[in-house]
Amino acid sequence: MDKLGDYATYISVFEAGSFSVAARRLNVGQPAVSKAIVRLEQQLNTRLLLRSTHGLRPTEAGQQLYLRAKHILHEVAETESAVSGVAEVLTGRLRVASSAVFSRLIELPDLSRFLHDNPELAMDLLLDEGELGLIAEGIDIALRIGDLSDSAFTARKLGSATQRVIGAPAYFARAGMPQMPRELLQHDMVIHHRAGGAEEWLFTHEQQQQQVRLQGRVRVSATECLREMVVAGFGATVACEGLFRSELREGKVVAVLPQWQLPPLALWAVFPSGHFISAKARAFADFIQQLLQRE
């Protein structure tokens, strides 16, 4: 490996916390990974990683090298991308992890168009709620919504999603149509419970604000369960508008309190490799960003 390759290997080992996991991610043998780290330690004349029964632990020098090398390799990748231009043919297999909510913001015909435009590219699409080990699973790009819990990865904001109060017409016919956010306290609410998710919402209308902490009768972690309960008329929910895209279009559910605004949810592309962001991952992020801007 060249020196940049050794630095890239070190970053993978640092983030994976394991020589074997980094080797799988880089698709090389573990001995090659170990040799790269030894070369770096010899060249720099310092210990970078300490091995113990609990795994790998970076030294202070190792921590500094990681931060600086990651920045440098990111700049190299940006330069290579700018020089190579947009005519590069995308090949290989792109592994994408997406939260269920984000996946519903992308219509399948659009996703098919990306594959049609890149005939030499294959794709693995893994739906998850942030529980996958991105490095261990060899993920090229993860699509996330809301606050990011792990700052070790490189993230790029792609857009934002609108949150609305949504319910079935039959439910509101039975329970009454809310005119103010605080009236939701008297409604049956289905709460999407997730790590880092809020159960308190700030509604804004012109100069007015109402902060409401909803005590839902039901809290669910699976988005499909949330959708089914709301469509079936069990209660209302506060959710990303895109989660109910087709149901809103067909009139199976309606959005209420239209004059009251909720803070938008940020949509992110997360690149877990930590060093070279592949051309195919970058192209896919560009494609998704264009789709979101079209909405």
TrEMBL record:
PROSITE patterns: HTH_LYSR (PS50931). It comes from the Bacteria. Belongs to the LysR transcriptional regulatory family. The keyword Acyltransferase does not apply. The keyword Transcription applies. It holds the Pfam family LysR_substrate. Residues 15-59 form the HTH lysR-type domain. Keywords: DNA-binding, Transcription, Transcription regulation. This is LysR family transcriptional regulator.
